[in-house]
Amino acid sequence: MSLTVQPAKPSIGGIIHVDSDHLLDDETIETVRHELEHRGVLVFPHLHASDELQLAFTDRLGDRVNFTRKIPGSDADTPDVYKITLDRKLNSEPDYVLGTFFWHIDGITIDQPLPKATVLSARRLSDSGGATEFANLYAAYELLPEREKEELENLRVIHTVEAAVRPVHGTPTQERIERYRSLAAVMEQPLVWTHEDGRKSLLLGTHADGIVGMPGAHGRALLTRLQQWAAQPDLVYTHHWTPGDLVIWNNQGVMHRVVPYTDEGRVMHRTTIAGTEKPGHVASESELQRIYAMA
């Protein structure tokens, strides 16, 4: 078997060249596990994996998890495969896809262990836009000055679906808020996550809606600054998709976003690998209200 790993950038990203017939081989799986921890994002160019192969690859790396069953596009043809598309025939509620135009971590507003990794394959592409950007949150933490690391160490952050889609709709209606709350939870997560292996990463994204104990404006300003810090060019890998590409990323240490597109024909198939670590917990309603009241 021929398997090679080519660094994409010094701080993030790797390109793996392997034939699809060997995607499930022990050597490939062990290479993916190792490189995913160090490179964060791995690209398999022109793999053209079927749903069955993508699910088998997902299962070889861990237990699969599906946290989008209530969202249009999930399980459309194959159980546990989510179709990411603006096609109204497949997705009658585009909020969640439009929300991916902004930095986020998959599943962070779900009351469960944070998904370990996301697998995405390109089925149909848009004529313009549609590239995916990935930012290394491990490296972003490591590069912070020591004094700032100490200041951030014990801060807690409120994450909401409302915040994630606020750039899409502005202030959501009460009906939309109730819909979002039925699909997810208001979660309180550490700003600095110490993983079971001792490594530390930031937990950031547009869904971060405030910092516990801080006035709303102060907390959001800090979160915005840290998000910009984490998205500095050296820590970001941008993947320009070609048909058949398969990409997997460490969802516990990488935030991502898609470059905006309008083409309803673009279709990506997503599967998800379950995590075992749960850094946060459901936030109290009183804490959420206190953040909004202090805005």
CATH superfamily: Clavaminate synthase-like
Number of domains: 1
Q: Which runs of at least 5 residues are low in confidence (pLDDT < 50)?
A: none
Helix share of residues?
25-40%
How much β-strand is present in the residues? 15-25%
Number of strands: 16
Write the layout of secondary structure elements.
Blueprint: E1 4-7, E2 14-17, H1 26-39, E3 41-44, H2 51-61, E4 82-84, H3 95-98, E5 117-124, E6 132-136, H4 137-142, H5 146-152, E7 156-159, H6 161-169, H7 174-183, E8 187-190, E9 192-194, E10 200-202, E11 208-211, H8 216-230, E12 236-239, E13 246-250, E14 254-258, E15 267-273, E16 281-282, H9 285-293
Parallel strand pairs: 2-3
Antiparallel strand pairs: 1-2, 3-13, 4-15, 5-13, 5-15, 6-12, 6-14, 7-8, 7-11, 8-16, 9-10
Can you tag this structure with a few keywords?
single chain, 295 residues, alpha+beta, Double-stranded beta-helix, 7-stranded mixed beta sheet, 4-stranded antiparallel beta sheet, 23% strand
Report on the architecture of this protein.
This protein is of the alpha+beta class. It has one domain: Double-stranded beta-helix, CATH 3.60.130. It has nine helices and 16 strands. The strands form four sheets. It has a seven-stranded mixed β-sheet, with helices on one face. It has a four-stranded antiparallel β-sheet with strand order 11-7-8-16. Strand 1 and strand 2 form a beta hairpin. The chain is globular and about 60 Å long. The N and C termini lie far apart (58 Å). The mean pLDDT is 92.
